[in-house]
TrEMBL record:
This is ABC transporter ATP-binding protein. It comes from Pseudaquabacterium terrae. Belongs to the ABC transporter superfamily. Residues 5-238 form the ABC transporter domain. InterPro entries: AAA+_ATPase (IPR003593), ABC_transporter-like_ATP-bd (IPR003439), ABC_transporter-like_CS (IPR017871), BCAA_Transport_ATP-bd_LivF (IPR052156), P-loop_NTPase (IPR027417).
Amino acid sequence: MSNILELSGVHTHIGAYHILHGVDFAVPAGEVTMLLGRNGAGKTTTLRTIMGLWQPSQGDVRFKGRSLKGQATPDIATQGIAYVPENMGIFSDLTVKENMVLAARAARHAGELDTKRLDWIFDLFPALKKFWLYPAGKLSGGQKQMLAVARAICEPRELILIDEPSKGLAPSIIQNLISAFNELKRQRTTILLVEQNFMMAKALGDHVAVMDDGRVVHRGAMRELAEDQSLQQRLLGLSLGAHQ
């Protein structure tokens, strides 16, 4: 199994703060890797470092064997990596359609969007078709999250980084996202997913890296972590079984 993304000895400073302390883990191609850990463990900083929003002060981030270190975020995005931040990153004053056009590098207007791919996205998220001409700011929280994910996949991407997509969402919406991510998985899209909802982590994850205090303290199969409550307690301070 080949790795599409590898972090080795990554340190990240934000101002005077040393946030990541030698992060090491790999993301196998075509599968879902969960990045778990308590609040403040460094998960979001790790995603932002991969995307070049913050530069590593030491160590390296390699995508398909090539270093991303020192590259600007737009240049990283053009290599086939998409990022869905925790705040979703949508443009509230623009319509759903306009948000999608902005996310599509190959389209200058809606008529140039890949209609076959757009129909596939509408199958995943029917609400987006219904509210196609609505301002994105008027969507519900769940619909905004669907739009954020749809923007990331409006064109084929090899790797998608997603930061806590289920936060604050109703169980039915979370299930919809799980179905969408499983469909991406079937298409061999690689996903690195930060998530606090352990039902979602267990349903989607093939692999897991657990962070604590800016370091990776555990790597392995998601299934093994899901079945070992003592390991869950030690690494995360809670049990996956309590979050079904």
